[in-house]
Amino acid sequence: MDLNQVVLNLEIVHSRKVLEPSWVVSQRAMPDGEVPFLSTDFVSEACRGIYLPEDIVKAAVAAADLVARVPSLCALAWHCHWCLYHVRGYSSRLADNWPCMTGPLGELAGLFYLLVLLSRFPQMRAVHRAHGIPDRVVRDSMEQIYLRGETCSEIFGRWGLDGHAARWLANFLRGDIYALGRLEHQFNVMDDPFRVYRHREASTVIALSEDGVSYRRDGQRHRGGDAPAAWTSRLRITGDRIAGHPLLPTGRASEEMVTLATADWVPVLEPGDPVLYFHIPGGIPLDHAACGDSFRAAMDFFPRHFPERPYKAFFCGSWLLDTQLEDWLPSGSNLVRFMREFYLVPGGISERSILQTVFGNAADDLRIAPGDTSLQRAIRDHVSAGSPIDPRAGKCFLFPDDLDWGRQVYRTSKFPWHLVGC
């Protein structure tokens, strides 16, 4: 169908620019007749296959029936499916801004993107069966879909998913992410600008910045709104020497360069290498022991079920890795203990991500923000004292060979502190 006609029919003209990329291609690929993932049998089986309660199953079937009978809705559903699962590198900014379907679907609006999400259910089930994924892991992973729908109920007034939720949850339908205890682990690649080397005998590791990265005076990544960059990194690799700026495991870059002998230091992680990106679902305490158990479970699960997809390290980017937390919270708090288990690197996280996550809708005015948790109170006190929110670090890695949960190995025994004079 013509995009202009679709947005007019559905009264979502404001979303035309968001929907335009890949529209023509998606419509050419759209099957004649019924769209398979909108059939009653498909929807009911898929919903039950991800363990949704029966009231949501019935609502999803009703939504699918309505979408299938309206050509414009059907064309849009197919387009979103195509972009999620067939357009490599489809922009998250586009998917996150897909239109809310309240106008065309009323109280069923929150089910539209569930239908889009579940369009890949047969392929996900095939992946699970081919790799022998235990039922318990499947159920725990699928629970994240239900929980995200609960969160989105603030938008729709009832259970449902928006475009942002569908875009993120599509990782589960692709078979790329699995919930293992407290954490979720996702196949991904490391694409940040640094390289990691390990000493052949001592087993210590050191990260060096890639060449040409701009940093602030405090060793954090330079961001667009900052003052001019204080310095720019250099990395020189010759036949027998590697010279560069080290990234300290406390999450900052050093302006002083170090030189490593290639005879002693082996590259173990660089941009483009496969990693397991771990995620930290909210809503439950960040129990320290449970997090360690999750990493150990991942080290058993992925080689056992996906031997063809090796990974080099665990990796993450999150506001939970902001070293401001070490200033605000006691050293024994779960957040601080968690952060100190990893080799932190400058990641350029935003002030907004921290405030929005900690305070929700009250992030715009901390004078009325809640103070129910120690972190909320610490941030309010920090801001009230006239101090800025200035994110630091924000990303991390952890090698399976270095996992000794509770020992904070990169701050103690696994980093060559003598090389940087600290």
Neighbour order of strands in the largest sheet: 1-2-13-14-16-15
Number of helices: 18
Uncertain stretches of 5 or more adjacent residues: none
**What's the number of extended β-strand segments?**
16
What does this structure look like?
41% of the residues lie in helices and 17% in strands. It is of the alpha+beta class. Helix 3 crosses helix 6 and helix 4 packs antiparallel against helix 5. The longest helix is centred in the middle third of the chain and has 22 residues. The termini are far apart.
Short description:
With 422 residues, the chain is of the alpha+beta class.
List keywords for this structure.
422 residues, five-stranded antiparallel beta sheet, alpha+beta
Present the secondary structure layout:
Layout lengths: L2 H8 L5 H4 L3 H7 L10 H10 L4 H16 L1 H16 L5 H4 L6 H4 L6 H6 L3 H10 L4 H22 L6 H11 L3 E4 L2 E7 L4 E6 L5 E5 L4 E2 L15 E2 L2 E3 L3 E4 L1 E3 L3 E2 L4 E4 L3 E5 L4 E6 L8 H18 L7 E10 L1 H5 L5 H6 L3 E4 L4 H9 L14 H11 L8 E6 L10 H4 L10
Parallel strand pairs: 13-14
Antiparallel strand pairs: 1-2, 2-13, 3-4, 3-12, 4-9, 5-6, 7-8, 8-11, 9-10, 14-16, 15-16
